[in-house]
Amino acid sequence: MRLRIPEPVSAGIILSYRCSGECRHCMYACSPRWRDEWLPEGKLERMLEGLRGRIRGAPGGGIGINYGLHLTGGEPFLNFELLLRAVRRVAGMGFPSTFVETNSFWCTDDGITRERLLELREAGLQGILVSVNPFVVEHVPFERMERAVRLGSEVFGKNVLVYQPLFYHLFRRAGLRGTLPFERYLELFGPRSLLHAELLPMGRAVYRLQGVLGLLYGRRRAEDFFGESCLAELTRPWHVHLDSQGNYMAGYCGGLSLGEAEDLEGLLSGVELEDRPVLAALVRDLRFLYELATEFGYREREEGYVSKCHLCLDLRRHLAEETKEFRELSPREFYEHL
C-alpha cells in the first residue's frame, strides 16, 4: 500500500527546533532545551530544489499564512546569519510570497530591529509574521512585538502578518507592558476569550493546557474517535513543513515524518506504508494505531482526550518512548519536549 502525497503549494522550512521560549501551545514542541542544531545549507539547497516551481504565491503578490514559502523554527532569529543566507538563497531561486516567522524576542531596540529587517529585505525577503498570543507574551515583553509590527510595517509595508491580531489588539487596549503569565491572562480575560482564537487541540497544548482545552472542547474516550482517520491531514498540500533534520511533515503533525524532505520527487511518487506501521494505521483508522500502541503497553487516559489529534499524539508519544522501531516517529527529540 502506498500513500499518495500531493505536490505542496505552500511550505515552511524549520531552520531549527531551538527557540528562545517554550510556549505551552507549541505544535512542534520547540524549546531552548533542544540541541543547538540548525539546518545544514546543503540540505536546504536540496529541499529548495524540490520545492522550486511548485509553491504558489498569495493573490495580489503579497504574503499570506497559507501561501508561498516561509522560514521558521523554533526561533530563526537565534541564528541570524543562517537566516540571512537562507533568505538570499530562497530569493535567488525566485520563490513567491516569502516571509519569516518570529516571536520578536530580539527586538530590544529600534536600531537593532530596523537594521535586521532592512538586511532581510535587501536579501530578498518579502515580509514578516509576528507571533502574538497569550503564550509568547509569557516570555517576550509585548513592547517588543509592537516594535516588530511597527518597524516591520516601515520596512515591508503591508507585508506584515500579525498572528493573531485578536491578541495584539487585546493587549494594546489593555496597555500591556512587559510579560504576562498565562494564569494572569485567564484572570483578566477569561478562558472563553480563547474560543475566538485558533488554539488548536494538538501538540504541546494537550499536555500543558489540559484544563483550558477540556473546558473549551470537552473530553471523550478513545473509542469515540475510532472510525476516524488522518488521511486528509496527511495529504494536505498547503502549509507543509520541512524540518532541520530532513523530515517532510504534512500540516501541523509534529513528530510524524512522511519521509525525506530532500527527496521530494521520491515522496511524490508515493510513500510505501508496509514498513511504516504508524502511518499505515493513521490513513485507515485511529483504532489501528490504538491497537498497535496497546501491544507496547499503552493504557487509555482516564481523563479522556480533547481531540483526535490528542489521541493520536498520545499514542505516538507512548510508542516513541517504548521503542525505536517506527522510523516515521521523527524527530525523536520532539517527544522528549512535549
Please give a structural write-up.
With 338 residues, the chain is α/β, with parallel strands linked by helices. 38% of the residues lie in helices and 9% in strands. It is built from 14 helices and 9 strands. The strands form 2 sheets. It has a 7-stranded mixed sheet with strand order 6-5-4-3-2-7-8, covered by helices on one side. Strands 1-9 form a two-stranded antiparallel ribbon. α4 links the parallel β5 and β6. α3 crosses α4 and α12 packs parallel to α13. The longest helix has 15 residues. It is globular and about 55 Å long. The model has no long low-confidence stretch (mean pLDDT 97).
How are the secondary structure elements laid out?
Elements (H helix, E strand, L loop, with lengths): L1 E2 L7 E4 L26 H11 L17 E4 L7 H13 L6 E4 L7 H14 L3 E5 L10 H15 L3 E4 L1 H9 L8 H8 L15 H4 L1 H8 L13 H4 L5 E3 L5 E2 L14 H5 L2 E2 L4 H8 L1 H10 L12 H15 L10 H4 L2
Parallel strand pairs: 2-3, 2-7, 3-4, 4-5, 5-6
Antiparallel strand pairs: 1-9, 7-8
Helix pairs in contact: 1-2, 2-3, 3-4, 11-12, 12-13
